[in-house]
Structure formats: structure tokens, C-alpha cells
Design a protein that fits this description.
mainly alpha, Arc Repressor Mutant, subunit A, 189 residues, Tetracycline Repressor, domain 2, 9 helices, 2 domains
């Protein structure tokens, strides 16, 4: 097949898949996870059920794909923040604040239990650990962060500390949590 034809087909498939993911997420928000059916998703997407089944075997598979896309967007955003202006301390502060705000906005419940598992989550956690570890190592070389604890351990400390943001009531509380987390990285004097 000609290259243009393949690109057009692939673009169409990508657009249909995106529409399926978006329609499913909207239906879950509106009706709850247990109430969403493949028929509803097909109708809201504007495709036939047979076409829907060519893309996904069931609602859970659609939700996992939606979550993979969602997590990849967060990781890309945090990577862009890391690559921003400033020294390691400023960039780490910005990354931790963004990560805490993401955690703060995250919805728990039945959908959270379903989606926050699997290889895509493990990959994202590894990527975030490496991202934070590298900033901590850079900041330790500059004397801004502790050098007596391995950067990998400090990255884990940051990630685990910021999970508390999901239970905080305000963005101000989230920012205080980030400040406390950063204080734990300061060198011993």
C-alpha cells in the first residue's frame, strides 16, 4: 500500500481509538464504572459495536488504555518541567509541586483501584524515580541536597511523601507538603 494510504489509515485508527477512550471516560464519570456498557460506548463514540470490539475486548481494556494515555501525558509534562529553566533545586521544586498537584487531583475509588496497577504504572513510576533521582544527584553535586543518602533513596522518599497530597484539602496544603519534602533533602549542617 502507498505510504500516504497507510498514514491515513493509521491516523483514522488513532482518532477512533482516542474517541473511544474519551467517550468511555465521560460515561464512567457520568454513570459510574459498573453502569458502562460496550453498547453505550459504541453509541456515544458513533461507531458500531462490531467496530468497537475490533479495538477493545471490554470496558476494562478501554479504561486501562485511557489510563495509559493519561499517565503518559503526566510523565511528558513532568519531563518538560524538569527540562525547564533554573538550577536543580528550582527544577526539582517545580517537578515535585506538579507531581503533588497531580496526586491531589487524582480520583480514588473503584476506578482508581482498577487503573493504578499494571505495567504502565510501574513504567511511569520508574521514569519518575529516575527523573527525581537525577535532579537530586545534580543538586547534591551543587551542595543543595544531601550527599549522605543515595539519590535513588531520596527520590523514593519524595515520591512516597507526595502520595499524601491525594488526601489534602487545599492546594496551599499541597504546597506546604512539597516544602516539607524539600526540607528533607537539605544537607545536614
Amino acid at each position: 500500500m502507498p505510504k500516504l494510504w497507510n498514514e491515513t489509515i493509521e491516523g483514522h485508527r488513532h482518532a477512533v481509538q482516542g474517541a473511544i477512550l474519551d467517550a468511555t471516560a465521560a460515561l464512567v464519570v457520568k454513570h459510574g464504572l459498573a453502569a458502562v456498557t460496550m453498547s453505550q460506548i459504541a453509541a456515544d463514540t458513533g461507531i458500531g459495536r462490531a467496530t468497537l470490539y475490533k479495538y477493545f475486548p471490554d470496558v476494562e481494556a478501554i479504561l486501562v488504555a485511557w489510563h495509559e494515555r493519561h499517565v503518559a501525558g503526566h510523565v511528558a509534562h513532568l519531563t518538560a518541567v524538569r527540562d525547564g529553566e533554573g538550577d536543580a533545586r528550582a527544577r526539582l521544586s517545580a517537578v515535585l509541586e506538579e507531581l503533588a498537584l497531580i496526586s491531589h487531583r487524582r480520583q480514588e475509588g473503584e476506578i482508581g483501584a482498577l487503573l493504578h496497577r499494571g505495567p504502565h504504572v510501574a513504567r511511569a513510576e520508574r521514569h519518575l524515580t529516575e527523573l527525581i533521582r537525577d535532579l537530586v544527584a545534580e543538586g547534591a553535586q551543587d551542595g543543595d541536597f544531601r550527599g549522605d543518602v543515595a539519590p535513588e533513596e531520596l527520590a523514593q522518599y519524595c515520591l512516597h511523601a507526595l502520595t499524601a497530597a491525594s488526601r489534602l484539602r487545599s492546594k496551599a496544603a499541597v504546597r506546604r507538603l512539597v516544602d516539607v519534602t524539600l526540607a528533607g533533602l537539605r544537607p545536614m549542617r
